[in-house]
């Protein structure tokens, strides 16, 4: 099972490596960094919002303290010391709240500064990655184009290999058709096959066969003469193929019989 798992993982890794496009991987990594940067910025904004809210509360409590102080002064001016005491007592209660709020404010302010610094550093890292990403993508695209051009010239690419095989098959089929056509022509010429594409002329076929006979006989006699097996071939009279002429005899014509008396011969 462990061996099968290793084989499966190796084949899956090889398939994934073949399918992987470095440009898409770089774009995806850059997108993830942008998302992380956006989260950090949102965090900074949330901390700044909380800090601002505490700042507003502190300002409100400080205004409330000033108001209680003014109330105590006015109460003393009219001779109401009890009212002045009550106002100062409430002012004291506000002071404890202000102390807690100021402590929280300082804490949020520190966190905001840290997140702002981290956001700036991450922004610089993302910008640097983007520049490097575009450089790598451009280099990869150029190398890919050069590789395809070289493969096309050398014929080792898959597409050009298929084109080469198609051309080779077409050439083989063409040669087979030419050989077949030549063989059929020879068979038709020798009479082994009949041509059914036109009307059959028996007289012309017989004449062609008779005309080809003397040529074969002459060639056979020439070969025999060359081997010393017979006399030299005789040249046929051009008119012999059309018919033999009767020989002329230079014999005197017979004299006519003497006529008998009375007109009888």
Essential attributes:
265 residues, mainly alpha, Helix Hairpins, disordered C terminus
Q: Which class best fits the helix and strand makeup?
A: mainly alpha
Strand content: under 5%
Strand-and-helix sequence, N→C? Answer: HHHHH
Distance between the termini: 138 Å
The mean pLDDT is: 76
Tell me what the CATH architecture of the domain at 10-154 is: Orthogonal Bundle
Global Rg? 61 Å
SSE map:
Elements: H1 2-19, H2 22-77, H3 81-154, H4 158-190, H5 202-226
Helix pairs in contact: 2-3
Structural description of this entry:
The longest helix has 74 residues, at 81-154. Among the domains are: 10-154, Helix Hairpins (Orthogonal Bundle); 155-189. The protein has helices at 2-19, 22-77, 81-154, 158-190, 202-226. With 265 residues, the protein is mainly α. The model is unreliable at 238-265 (pLDDT under 50). The radius of gyration is 61 Å and the shape is rod-shaped.
Condensed summary:
Helices cover 78% and strands 0% of the residues.
């Amino acid at each position: 099972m462990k061996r099968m798992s290793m084989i499966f993982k190796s084949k899956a890794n090889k398939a994934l490596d073949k399918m992987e496009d470095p440009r898409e991987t770089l774009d995806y990594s850059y997108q993830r960094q942008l998302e992380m940067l956006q989260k950090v910025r949102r965090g900074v904004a949330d901390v700044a919002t909380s800090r601002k809210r505490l700042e507003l509360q502190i300002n409100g409590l400080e205004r409330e303290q000033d108001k209680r102080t003014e109330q105590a002064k006015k109460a003393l001016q009219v001779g109401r010391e009890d009212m002045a005491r009550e106002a100062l007592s409430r002012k004291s209660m506000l002071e404890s709240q202000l102390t807690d709020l100021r402590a929280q404010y300082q804490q949020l302010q520190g966190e905001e500064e840290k997140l702002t610094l981290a956001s700036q550093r991450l922004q610089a890292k993302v910008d640097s990655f983007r520049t490097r990403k575009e450089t790598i993508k451009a280099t990869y695209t150029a190398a890919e184009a050069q590789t395809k051009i070289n493969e096309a010239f050398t014929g080792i690419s898959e597409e050009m290999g298929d084109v080469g095989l198609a051309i080779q098959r077409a050439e083989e089929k063409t040669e087979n058709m030419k050989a077949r056509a030549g063989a059929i022509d020879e068979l038709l010429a020798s009479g082994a096959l009949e041509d059914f594409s036109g009307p059959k002329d028996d007289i012309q076929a017989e004449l062609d066969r008779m005309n080809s006979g003397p040529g074969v006989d002459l060639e056979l006699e020439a070969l025999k003469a060359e081997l010393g097996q017979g006399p030299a071939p005789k040249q046929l009279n051009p008119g012999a193929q059309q018919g033999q002429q009767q020989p002329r005899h230079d014999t005197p014509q017979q004299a006519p019989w003497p006529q008998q008396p009375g007109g009888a011969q």
